[in-house]
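Work Package 3 committed the consortium to producing structural models of liganded targets before the mid-term review. Because experimental data for this complex are still outstanding, the team generated a predictive model from sequence and the ligand definition alone, so that downstream docking and mutagenesis planning could proceed in parallel. The input record is reproduced below exactly as it was submitted to the modelling pipeline, together with the SMILES string for copper (II) ion.
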Amino acid sequence: MGLSIVVVFAIGAIFVANLFSSNQNEITIQELSVSSTDEVLQQVHDFGGLTLQLPGAFAQLSSDQAMALETEGYRIVEHNLVGLSAELPIMGGKTYKAMTFNGQVPGPTLRITQGDIVKMTLCIPDDEVQPHSIDEHASQLSATNFGAVDIGTCQTYIYKAEYAGVFKFHCEGINLAAMDQHVLSGMYGIIIVDPLNGYRKLMVEKTTIENGQVKIDRQFHSADALEFHLQFSQLYLDENGNYDQQALFLHHASQNTVNGLALGYTPNEDLNELIMGDPNKNIFVLQPWNSADLAQYQGKLMYVPTGQHVRLFVENQANEPLYFHLVGEIFDRVIQSNYVQAKGQDTHLIGGSQGVIIDLVFDEPGVYAAVNHDYGALFSGAAALFVAGDFFDLDISPSYAEALGNPSDAVPPMGKNSIAHPMINLHGLYTDERAAEVQEMIDNGQWQTVQSQD
Ligand SMILES: [Cu+2]
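The resulting structure, written out as tokens with the ligand in place, is given here.
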């Protein structure tokens, strides 16, 4: 490895030297000798290599500093994570070697308010097969100096969340080694930092006729909204469900996922029965998670009333761009941090590790697909279905959201201006143990209030 880096350095230096010397009377760069390349590499090595070691450059708080801030009136919020490897299902009836936070993909969402002090603790159990680490993008410090957390130990770091928005967190592998594998095998999640003063009311522009003239009709919705979170990612696997780094380097995703599952928000056999009168007659062309035997993995739809302010927290956890689009709707507002990025937009480009907040009102009853408008991604799993209003004409009163419930893995914890979901179903890429814990929280009515605190 060291030798190949030296060769690359040397070739690069010769290339640069040739490039400039051919430019007659201009700058000349002396060709680097292999011995001086060695010196450069030695300096990199002495500096600590790729593992950054700049203890003065990180805004980490000590316990004493955090307690002092708490005394001044800041709130301390815990984010307790556990690194766990697990075998979990993928579309197609197979399994893959997943790596998780707390036995679920994505990891538990933390919901806080701007100015909160986050006390993040990562533990690796005695029976876990490998160390893990953490990088929380809501902080303004790299956790690289925090390093890998060894098996059978815990580490904590504390920071103040100064900016509002949606922020990724992810494993950094074992001191950066295999970070790609750990993240793309499931070790990611989001932290939602609500603006200190809450969200702003939503203005939706329509047109209307007044005295025979077309006029703008501005409609205002309260900041309070029914909320969902959607995290798009990709799996890079060989046929045995092992991580395939070569596939990643070639950008050949095996499947695309939303909240860990490819096409997980699709109808199931219960809905086939309800709507078609036959459990085996699919109402949607692709229903990979039909059966109730699949327990927490059975397909579920997301339900919203029409005319309701809906807030989506969307994060691109993947390695490819996310062309976020909701088939049949237009985003009324797109926010990053606490700043409006767009209004009246059909598709919003979300780069890798970026998050956005999307506000919209579903105007008409219908089935709407939230997709990555990259066709390769869409047809390999990056689609999640919303049903607005009484689209299936089932005359269910007062709403599907109340009668049929929404999937637990799409429901974020309560925050500023959240409307509680009237009913929640168990659904998600959870280990059986985690599914039992989630079910208990749902049964106790705690899912929206404590999911990130366990
Ligand atoms: Cu890890």
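Reviewers should note the following from the model. Residues 224 and 417 are 4 Å apart (CA to CA). These observations will guide the Year 2 experiments.
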